[in-house]
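Example record

The entry below shows one chain as it appears in the dataset: sequence first, then structure tokens.
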Amino acid sequence: MNTPRTHSSKAGQPGARDPFGAHLRHWRTHRRLSQLDLAQEAEVSTRHLSYVETGRAAPSREMVLRLAERLEVPLRERNALLVAAGFAPMYRQRSLDDPALASARRAVDLVLKGHEPFPALAVDRHWNLVAHNALVPLLMAGAAPELVQAPVNVLRLSLHPDGLASRIANLAQWRAHLLDRLQQQIAATGDTVLQALHDELEDYPTPQVSHDAPAANTELSGVVVPFQLVTPNGVLSFISTTTIFGTPVDVTLQELAVESFFPADAQTAAALTALAAQPARRTGNT
């Protein structure tokens, strides 16, 4: 049974020392499922599920994984569920620079490099910059030094008054878009760090932007939110896409996302092509 589910975002996650039942109850209520709903989806009796949740019965490893799958629990939190139930973690967590992930790193670098002369970057689950192509630093120029020191959080960089915010021509629209995306991610993961980031970004004062941005492409505005950045080369207009690994078996890969920006008009395409053709300004990947 595939019960439509909505998401809550405020409930705190159980700690590492909490029993499995507390973790299970957190994810069940976070997904707004009753015990009956979850029992039907997991094909177990409501009574047994109740016993597992209250600690009167211990789940098997297979049961833990089945419940995690039905609850759409991210891989990082599936490890926490397994540990809480007394089993070893199943999904490895490694740096993208780990030799075991060399093929994945090469794939990311190929995507980033292949997207030139347009900007593209890779971020982790908290929107920290992991890698980028040669065009990204050119667009970050002018931001306060502390915002471009590693680890660079791209959402903070975008919306901070000393970051790119004062140069985003359609700031109100882009800010609302980013906060909405972040809220959806919080709803899916229950990540308290993301919630704190959302609260921080929401509290930023909004700079008064007076730039004359070109009118958004009406054919595109119905399906995408443009990103319009004021630069010495004029107002550059982008649309963006997000790429993720389809079937990850590693925590790092599941949490990695590649953001690719495409020119939304001919002027932007020409300006970026000209920028990319200046060898002295190319900086390469991180």
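Notes for this example: The beta strands are 120-123, 129-132, 227-231, 234-244, 257-263. Residues 1-11, 280-284 have pLDDT under 50 and may be disordered.
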